[in-house]
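Complex record, two chains
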Amino acid sequence: LAKTTQPISMDSYEGQEVNITCSHNNIATNDYITWYQQFPSQGPRFIIQGYKTKVTNEVASLFIPADRKSSTLSLPRVSLSDTAVYYCLVGGPYSSASKIIFGSGTRLSIRP
Amino acid sequence: GAVVSQHPSWVICKSGTSVKIECRSLDFQATTMFWYRQFPKQSLMLMATSNEGSKATYEQGVEKDKFLINHASLTLSTLTVTSAHPEDSSFYICSASLPPYQETQYFGPGTRLLVL
């Protein structure tokens, strides 16, 4: 199972673009890259998922280079409400045979 | 779509009692659900994989006799913490993967357990 490495914490200001990079050197051919957001005392919330190149949705973009050994979550124009822990997860499809390992996550703090 | 609920959202119990936590997939059928535990300021730790109609698969170090998991239907999995002790106090979160491809996990809101 591919292990992920992320920065422990990041700080930014409202209105800025924030990029969080995740390293996953041992990613397998059929693994997807998924990012989750977690607020205190809540379950993780799905943000975005991709397999290769670039994926964009209404809240974020995900950039995946050709070798897929890393990925970057991009949050455009962050606000105070984006303060949370962000987890990068590599794996899938998740079935009874799957193991899921959460990394340490990145604690993002947004300041006014 | 892909909503997972948990009940209760928080529970306080006395040491030595048992507590049951329910995890439901509200708008899809989940053949596999997962149970996690999260301590303050730490990441999620997988406890076990719950399979509908069969025994759960526990991660190393998780006591199967203490954390009983039942997955009786395609929309419900339960975690029972038996003979709870203060060290079992934690945030318990379940998740389910969305068929048919199952490459995405959807998480419940979590259950805060406090054992006195």
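Note: The two ends of chain B are 37 Å apart (CA to CA).
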